[in-house]
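User: Okay, second chain of the day. Same drill as before: sequence in, structure tokens out.
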Amino acid sequence: MAQQKYPAVFMRGGSSKGVFFHDRDLPTDPGLRDRIFLAAIGSPDIYGRQLNGMGGGVSSLSKAVVIGPPTVEGADLDYTFAQIAVGEAVVDYSANCGNLSSAVGPFAVDEGLVKVEGDEALVRIHNTNTSKIIHSRFRVKDGMAVIEGEQTIPGVSGTAAPIRLDFLNPGGATSGKLLPTGNTVDQLDVPGIGRIDVSMVDAANGCLFIEASALGLTATELPDVLEANKEAMAALEAIRRAAAVAMGLAKNPESTPQGNPKVAIVAAPAPFKTISGLEVPAGDCDLLVRMISMGQCHRVLPLTGGLCAGVACRLEGSTAAHNFKRSGDAIRLGTPSGILSVDAEVLRKADGWHAERASVFRTARRLMEGSVLIPNFTAAA
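Assistant: Same drill. Structure tokens below.
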């Protein structure tokens, strides 16, 4: 039986990859769209490899994007992100992907959705998951996004043209408040674990930050080592679910979305080894971070999680700020793949803390274009 063809582009954005669709090319029924995304990526997969689709068996490679006309003023387009679970038939829209956000601007320019005059593009992106605006700036030539450049990012080999992302007013992206509880640090009482101090911050995405030592960890662990520590992973998930309720993201622990909030362990700078075997001295970073996304330790950081960590470093009294060793204007986060540099402008006003902006440089590349093939039974289900 012939398969259904849906126009699509396969892109890398930052340290993630995903299948990009035009809204106009997809059915309007949300359930049918989800079935298309699951089949395209290859989920659910009991073997965790997604060999029957375009995913890569980890959360950073199991994603879809929909681009459509803008629905708010001040934006050039709407961008909806879909996180596809690897082992379950779950499509999660509760959070944005910062890494794939970096591919949205180049996609829009190359597809002719945004016209550019001169040699630099500014694409104003409305992320529908968070109702936030992102400004994407990058070089263009002959009306197309430039690919070649000298920008490097952890987790991606080689160099490419830089893409600057400015997340404007990122506070309250998922809960409506930068500090969902009103505090920079709270003590949660988690069944089976007891009382533990956490900082719950919502900037670009909702995240909670726990001092690694509170769980007998160091935040220098490589992903495979951390994932093999079943006790620690179970504790992090229990804390994440308790925090989701405290942040107003779930009515009870059982209803917590898979994709949000993210949970991270943090620690003061210390020497660590990357996935590639590179030895990183303590002086090269300002904060060690290991973040869990969709039940897996991210090989770098979810970019929105990294931006949220940057904002948290600017919040006096938070667990991140307590371990942050400022060395300059940029905030250098030690991740499993190396150093991720971010920036955040955070002000303390009369009515409390405000995140004005969170920024980062990324790279992106268009990898394939054409059609993704979907079995007919999926579209007809």
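The radius of gyration is 20 Å.

User: Thanks, on to the next one.
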